[in-house]
Design brief:
The protein is mainly α. It has one domain. The protein is 70% helix and 0% strand. Helix 1 packs antiparallel against helix 2, helix 1 packs antiparallel against helix 11 and helix 2 runs parallel beside helix 11. The longest helix is centred in the first third of the chain and has 39 residues. It is globular, with a radius of gyration of 20 Å.
Length: 253
């Protein structure tokens, strides 16, 4: 099965459920019920994002371990070699890659991947130096993407194309800070909804269908770009480690 296909399919389904809640709330009259359905839609969208990155991490780790299982002579990074795999997962009689997938899933089971820093921490180990996720070096391709929004990067695609030299470098650094801030806000609001019913202080925060729709757009943009990048980078990662084409084909398809 191609890498990340299940994680991405589940994300698309879960985000669709979130959009269903948004569609249900829109016709309702202004009031607490409408607002709470919108909050549920916000939480579902962020939950879909969290689930994608948890599933994606388990998928990539399990495939890397499967590659090592197929070619024991290849040295793998200490970060993978020293993973604390639950013993029960290792002795299970599951065939082939499923044993490693179950082990990797248990590693991430209690984790939350709700910060861009955490995403970088988990996934940049699988990326080439110039292609790491959400860094100043790699962010420009995201800014230039047709689905990019000014609110994510603090600059439009059109304005970004006009920049040269030091201006471009500065804009990239600012863009990373901007997207970090945007997702900190999105993820924190989900936390506030769950843990204090959207009252981070005393007053209940206002919410609108427009703001929730933007959250869905931004979450989808993040997942889609990371999915695209990781689908390319993981095979390159295995190549750089020294795994054969035969092994790469077996664990990536």
């Amino acid at each position: 099965m191609p890498i990340l296909i299940t994680a991405k399919r589940h994300f698309d389904e879960d985000l669709g459920r979130s959009r269903g809640l948004l569609g249900h709330a829109r016709p309702l009259g202004v009031g607490p019920l409408r607002d709470d359905i919108l909050r549920a839609a916000w939480m579902m969208a962020v939950g879909a994002c969290d689930a994608f990155f948890c599933d994606a991490y388990a998928d990539l780790v399990s495939r890397a371990l499967r590659a090592k299982d197929l070619e024991p002579r290849v040295e793998i990074p200490d970060r993978l070699a020293n993973l604390r795999i639950p013993a029960i997962a290792v002795i299970r009689q599951a065939a082939g890659g499923w044993r490693w997938r179950m082990a990797a899933r248990e590693l991430i089971e209690d984790e939350s991947v709700l910060s861009l820093q955490k995403i970088r921490e988990l996934f940049n180990q699988f990326c080439r130096p110039n292609s790491k996720l959400v860094t100043a070096r790699a962010i420009e391709t995201w800014i230039l993407h047709r689905d990019a929004k000014h609110r994510l990067f603090g600059i439009s695609t059109t304005d970004s194309r006009k920049l040269t030299g030091p201006q471009r470098s500065t804009a990239r650094e600012l863009a990373v800070a901007k997207i970090n801030s945007r997702f900190d806000t999105i993820f924190q609001r989900r936390h506030d909804c769950i843990h204090n019913c959207d009252r981070p202080k005393i007053a209940l925060l206002a919410i609108s269908d427009t703001s929730v729709n933007k959250v869905m757009e931004d979450v989808k943009f993040l997942v889609d770009r990371c999915h695209e990048a990781l689908s390319i980078e993981f095979s390159a990662y295995l190549t750089e480690l020294g795994f054969s084409g035969q092994t790469r084909n077996r664990v990536c398809m």
